[in-house]
Write a structure and sequence with these properties.
Helix content: 55-70%
Shape: globular
Low-confidence stretches: 116-174, 303-307, 629-633
CATH superfamily of the largest domain: TolB, N-terminal domain
CATH topology of the largest domain: Rossmann fold
Structural class: alpha+beta
Strand content: 5-15%
Distance between the termini: 54 Å
Number of domains: 5
CATH architecture of the largest domain: 3-Layer(aba) Sandwich
Number of strands: 14
């Protein structure tokens, strides 16, 4: 092959990219697992290094014959950044140009494929010979590490921990696998299911296996494949992964039975299978054994990772069971009753293990949700949330989820927006793949009037958890407050196609319909909402008032006032109805009360369309100034 026929390769920072071989190699000689659209994304951006590539152009290049949702591109970018360890806050490879697209910002050197990669080693200040020697030494160390971990597992891993186990294995894949889906665990028996334990086992393994060497599909992406009749290979192909782990689990009083198998999606080969029959108290050893084997089978180049236990926040099996019960009830979206059950479960978890930091985060988040949704008075709900999150941070100061929850409390109740920004920044430094942190950061940016950035942050949450419809609904809400009503209606309609019963999507769609004069359609949406959501108490009265049905609107607002003496009804919601009725004095009086009670929606005051009629009133300006004086958007970086 002459010089011109050699395929082109690219070098940047510590990496060498060979598109013809679909290889990304670090300077230590290790292959970086990156496949599918993430690899194609890297090639496209590297070939246009320094140029701004719009989202539309990149989507067309990656999916030339298919119309795809924005979340697909977000997932590809997120997977690429994870492989490159392109962490926040300082992107040094792929930069986001807000509202426009992406740019590969690292310096790129083009070289023929046959040329030695001197520049990669030179970037570290090493001559080629020394670098090659180091690479050889690194290879010897990896081989020694692989032998060591095999020995450790033989002595202390699967064989020593498991009392009874049957194992069947096939040859390992010929190359390192980069993508995996842990399918929802199912019940071994048709009766006596423990759905929370099935969900918890799935979530624990997803969280524990996900990392720089292996990208694991998020829980929301795999939950749809919980049907006992689901074919694992078909699910893996639909998810676009290279391997799937499917499992069955049963708890019988104090005993635990687990059966798992690891499959290669491309040809259906079984790579490994095992069964465990243990005391329930050994559930953590079972999880560690499964994870160690998956790591060793799928990522042989980094098999030493299998020597580590999964990171866990409790060693108490019963506390773990109550925690997964809480997560299950929280994810089921069973309204206020489901949230209260989740709260009881999390409290039982910390009663059994007072050092269980993640369970305290669960307690904080449920209290905050109850406060934001108007089910509990904000001062009561957020006081309890703050106590719980402070305890979590005392126990684990570097728990990213706890910092995110702290930011949420500061945003929604304490109105400490600079402090909230710092908390989200810390949360994302510790765990840039924690979707709620991106979601809540998006709310903060929206309150600051930085709507394009707010939408971008929320879409990042979507990319990390693409099947979670709540993030899509939040994008619709932000579009509504930004007065991009047609886009908001389109976004929220798509959201309801994902989940027709999602209350927030219906309420935000109703709110948007009100802004464009579609009052009857707004009322129809509200009729289908059966649980409190942010602002939902006021939208029916607004719709009646704006539709000219003044008598009905007055009756509705009087009903809300009467109820507020019995249970919590947001003063902010009542103010919106009076504003729609054109009663400026009453609207402003109730807004004063909303400030006093710290309504979680008070931060939207400068952007709320229904208050447009108040904006010329000095009393309204004083309220906005009171909000901005201490918590100015300008103080956010």
């Amino acid at each position: 092959m002459n010089e011109q026929e050699r395929p082109t390769v690219y070098e940047f920072d510590r990496f060498r990219l060979d598109p013809s071989q679909r290889l990304l190699i670090r300077d230590d000689g290790a292959s970086v697992p990156l496949s599918g659209k993430a690899f194609d994304t890297l090639v496209y951006l590297v070939q246009r290094s320094g140029q701004l590539v719009s989202r539309e152009e990149l989507s067309r290049a990656l999916w030339p014959r298919t119309i795809v949702d924005d979340a697909n591109l977000n997932v590809a970018i997120s997977t690429l950044r994870r492989a490159l360890k392109d962490e926040l806050p300082d992107r040094k490879f792929v930069a986001t140009v807000t509202g426009r697209g992406y740019q590969f910002v690292a310096a790129v050197r083009v070289a023929p494929a046959g040329e030695p990669s001197d520049s990669v080693h030179a970037a570290n200040g090493k001559p080629e010979r020394e670098a090659n020697a180091g690479s050889t030494a690194a290879t010897r160390r990896r081989r020694a590490g692989a032998l060591a971990i095999t020995f450790v597992l033989a002595l202390t891993g699967v064989a020593a921990v498991m009392a009874t186990r049957a194992v069947r294995e096939s040859p390992a894949p010929s190359r390192q696998v980069a993508t995996l889906a842990v399918l929802p665990f199912k019940s071994i028996l048709a009766t006596g299911r423990n759905e929370s334990l099935e969900l918890g086992m799935t979530e624990t393994l997803i969280s524990g296996l996900n990392g720089s060497s292996l990208t694991v599909s998020p829980l929301s992406a795999v939950r749809r494949y919980a049907n006992p009749e689901q074919d694992a290979i078909q699910a893996g192909r639909a998810l676009g992964v290279e391997a799937v782990l499917e499992g069955y689990i049963q708890r019988d009083t104090n005993n635990l039975r687990v059966s798992v198998r690891l499959l290669n999606v491309s040809d259906g080969r079984q790579l490994w299978a095992a069964s465990f029959d243990e005391p329930f108290s050994d559930i953590f050893s079972v999880q560690d054994a499964i994870a160690a084997k998956v790591w060793s089978e799928l990522t042989p180049n980094v098999a030493a990772a299998g020597a580590q236990s999964l990171h866990r926040h409790t060693g108490n099996a019963e506390a773990y069971q109550f925690y997964v019960n809480g997560q299950y009830h929280r994810l089921q979206r069973l309204g206020v009753d489901g949230l209260r059950q989740a709260l009881a479960d999390f409290e039982q978890a910390v009663a059994r293990d007072p050092g269980f930091a993640l369970a305290y985060v669960g307690i904080a988040d449920v209290h905050a949700i109850l406060g934001v949704f108007g089910a509990v008075a904000p001062r009561e709900a957020f006081a309890q949330a703050r106590i719980a999150v402070d305890r979590a941070l005392e126990l684990e100061p570097d728990l990213g989820a706890a910092h995110a929850s702290l930011g949420h409390i500061r945003t929604q109740f304490e109105l400490d927006w600079p402090g909230a920004h710092q908390a989200y920044r810390r949360a994302l430094q510790l765990d840039p793949y924690y979707a709620p942190a991106w979601q809540w950061r998006g709310i903060l940016l929206g309150l600051a009037g930085r709507f394009d950035e707010a939408i971008e942050s929320t879409r990042q949450a979507q990319a990390l958890d693409p099947a979670m419809p709540g993030y899509s609904a939040l994008v619709g809400m932000l579009l509504m407050y930004h007065r991009r009503y047609d886009e908001a209606i389109e976004q929220l309609t798509r959201t309801l196609e994902m989940d027709p019963e999602l209350p927030t999507a219906r309420v935000y769609l109703a709110a948007t319909y009100l802004r464009v004069g579609r009052h009857d359609e707004a009322l129809a949406q509200l009729e289908r909402v059966r649980t409190p959501t942010p602002g939902s108490a006021g939208y029916r009265g607004q719709a009646l008032a704006l539709a000219g049905r003044r008598g009905e609107a007055l009756a509705e607002v009087q009903r809300l006032e009467q109820e507020s003496s019995i249970r919590y009804v947001s003063a902010y919601d009542i103010a919106t109805v009076y504003a729609a009725l054109g009663d400026t004095d009453q609207a402003l009086a109730w807004l004063e009360r909303a400030f006093g009670e710290r309504s979680p929606l008070i931060g939207w005051l400068p952007w709320e369309p229904v208050f447009d009629s108040l904006r010329g009133d000095p009393r309204y300006s004083a309220l906005v100034a009171q909000l901005d004086l201490s918590h100015s958007a300008r103080s956010l970086p």
